[in-house]
């Protein structure tokens, strides 16, 4: 995949294959955490419904784990957003350096 480019961003931007690999890895990490959260939430609900004291006290740790997972997802999305912005900025600079012909930038009113 190294050296491959992707130009499906609508504005003709080309993205290196390594960048796509990074995005894919991050999205897989996010999905894995969200899947784990789903299981945690199910276990928390079961423990709550059981009203067994040991299960209810176990929920404290499960909820902490859930909160930590949510923080990890937020951090991963923040990193993705920052990386995407850098790529788009670099692409915009490349396009404005003369490789654009006949394209107009639409600015919001």
The value of Rg in angstroms is 22 Å
In the sheet with the most strands, the strands line up as 1-2
- Which sequence of SSEs, written as H and E, runs from N to C? EEHH
Strand content: under 5%
Helix count?
2
What summary fits the major beta sheet? Answer: 2 strands, antiparallel
Q: What does this 3D model show about the protein?
A:
The chain has 109 residues and is mainly alpha-helical. The protein is 74% helix and 4% strand. The chain contains 2 helices and 2 strands. Strands 1-2 form a two-stranded antiparallel sheet. Residues 1-7 have low confidence and may be disordered.
Layout of helices and strands, plus pairs?
Blueprint: E1 5-6, E2 15-16, H1 17-50, H2 53-99
Antiparallel strand pairs: 1-2
Task: Describe what is shown at a glance.
It comes from Rhodamnia argentea. Helix content is 74%, strand content 4%.
Give the key terms.
109 residues; two-stranded antiparallel sheet; biological rhythms; disordered N terminus; single chain
